[in-house]
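Q: I'm writing up a methods section and want to include an example of the input and output format. Could you take the sequence below and give the corresponding predicted structure tokens, formatted cleanly so I can copy it straight into the document?
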Amino acid sequence: MDIDISDAVHSQAVPANEEYKLQCVGAEMKGEAGKEYGRFLSMNFAIQDVVGAKLVSEAYWHPSDAKEVKFGDRTMTAEESKNARKCALKDLCAAFELDYNTITPGDFIGLTASAILKVKSDPKYGDSNKIQRWIKA
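A: Here is the clean output for your methods example:
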């Protein structure tokens, strides 16, 4: 291949604890009910007005597939897990000003909302951004 890649720059995570405007560039339901992790809404967001920023990827788990979850010494009951999943979806919809009773994954694509981001470090993939909290519109 006759391609000059010497000026290629890898995308990077943005600094944490700051507000960013995000545009949804992908949203689809994945997984299967009854499987180990169940169904989830897989979403990708582009950080607006930041050249070279990595996409932000998030998963919103379906409340009806909730079960007991262990976090170190603490166990979250299935009801607590179900409520946490509902709250995450409710906050997502509020940020994008969508009615959570009637949404489909495609309704998010192209829309923008603001969020405070955090940085997640991974030895294999490096730093990436995750949603710390959505800012209600």
